[in-house]
Amino acid sequence: MQESPHKREYIGYSERVPIVRNGGARNGAASSFRAAERAVFRRLRTPAAVQVFLDNLAYNKEPDGPTCRSPRQVLRDRTAHCMEGALFGAAALRLLGYPPLLLDLEAVRDDDHVLALFRQRGHWGALAKSNYSGLRYREPVYRTLRELVMSYFEHYYNPSREKTLRGYSRPVNLARFDRIAWMTAEEGVWSIPEYLCTVSHTAVLEPRLVPALGRVDERLFQAGRLGGAG
Which of 25, 105, 162, 196 is the one with CA 20 to 30 A from 89? Predict the structure, then answer.
C-alpha cells in the first residue's frame, strides 16, 4: 500500500473500540471453519500463541505474483506475508472472543505494515507477521493506540536504514467484510487492503522533525533482520 493522499491531523481520534469478549460471536465465527481448521485454532488459546503460529509460517515472498490470502488459505498453504498474517491474526483473535481489528502503519519509501489489534484490561497489544523481528508482537501494555504505534518507530526502517514510519490508521473492524466471508474465502480478499488505503491516517510526527531523524545503526539493522526470509 502506498502513502495515503488523505489529509492528516496531529491530534488523536476516539479509541472507544469495544473490549467485551463476545462468546456468541466467537462461536458463530468458529462455525465458518471446517473441523480440521477449528482444531488448529483451538490450540491457539492466547494472543501470544497466535503470534508463535504466525512466526512459524513461511514468509510469503509472492513468487507467482501478488496474493492476499484469506485465513483459510493461510492455514492451507502455511505461508503468509504482512497483510495475510494480520488477517489470520484477526480471525484467530475473533475466535478467542476479541473483535477482529486491523490497523495500518503507513510508511514513506517503504511498505506499509498491518497489525491485528487486541485489548486486555484497557491496554492495547498487537499481532503481526513481518520479515523484521522488531515489527511483530506487542504485549498489551499500551494505554493508547499512539503509544502502541510509537513502539514500532525505531524498528521501522528500509534497506537504506531510513526510519520510515509516518502514520497510522484508525482501527478497522473486519466484521464489515463478513459479507465476503473474509475468513474462509477461497479467493484473494483484496477489498480489505484496498479499503485500508482509503482510511484516514494520523501522522506520528510533524514534518519539521523529519530532517533531524538519524539512520538506523548497524547493530539494530542486523538485529531487525534476524530470522528474516532474506
Answer: 162
